[in-house]
Amino acid sequence: MRAWLRAALVLGAQLRALWLAAAVEVHTAKEVVAVNGTNQRLKCTFSSNSPVSEQLSVSWNFQPEDLSAHEPVFYYLKEPYQPPSGRFKDRVTWDGNIERHDVSIMVWNLKPSDNGTFTCQVTNWPDVYGTIGEVRLRVVQKVSFSEIHFLAVAIGSASGLMIIVVTAVIICRQHRRKARDRRMEAADSERKEKESLKMGEKKESIPLED
């Protein structure tokens, strides 16, 4: 009984090591943000312990944000195959290079309904197991020209108003400074004039000697 258990444990460890050695690792970006109406390349690369075989296959699938059923996006086996129907019909093209372990695709004319998660799965015989790459795509609305124009006008107006206010403050301060200087000069002149008058009065009040 113990010998059977030991043999089972050894076999399990060997199978696990074999599975890890024969696994395909898939690498993708975690999240991609694109503008509505543009085209976006979804990059997917893989690494395998086995040479690239003629039986290598690539499966791209899509799951919308509402977590409904998966939809086929693209398939590759010796040559690329586009989906015959569905939301991605005539909107997906092959953009990879098998020799470089690149199995990327290009999605054209993005729409808000394309928001969701794309999965990339690669099998390379005998590496038939491995990780599945996931890319979360977020399609954002494109800013229209009118909105850009309005934003530019608003920023320009605010900048112009700020310049006018700063200029007015500087002119006002200069005007106040000049008025203060004129008042000080007038006061100084008045003081000197009074002093001169006092000096003249003192001279007149001194009696003349016989």
Low-confidence stretches: 1-21
Level of helix content?
25-40%
- Head-to-tail CA distance between termini: 157 Å
Q: What order do the strands of the largest sheet run in, or round the barrel if closed?
A: 2-12-10-5-6-7
Taken in chain order, the helices and strands follow as HEEEEEEEEEEEEH
Protein architecture, described:
This protein is of the alpha+beta class and 210 residues long. The chain is 39% helix and 28% strand. The chain is built from two helices and twelve strands. It has helices at 2-21, 145-205, and strands at 23-28, 31-35, 40-42, 44-47, 57-64, 71-77, 80-81, 92-94, 105-107, 116-123, 129-130, 133-140. A six-stranded mixed β-sheet has the order 2-12-10-5-6-7, with no helix packed on it. The chain has a three-stranded mixed β-sheet with strand order 4-1-11. Strands 3-9-8 form a three-stranded antiparallel β-sheet, with no helix packed on it. The radius of gyration is 42 Å and the shape is rod-shaped. The N and C termini lie far apart (157 Å).
What's the gist of this structure?
With 210 residues, the protein is α+β, with helices and mostly antiparallel strands. The chain has helices at 2-21, 145-205; strands spanning 23-28, 31-35, 40-42, 44-47, 57-64, 71-77, 80-81, 92-94, 105-107, 116-123, 129-130, 133-140.
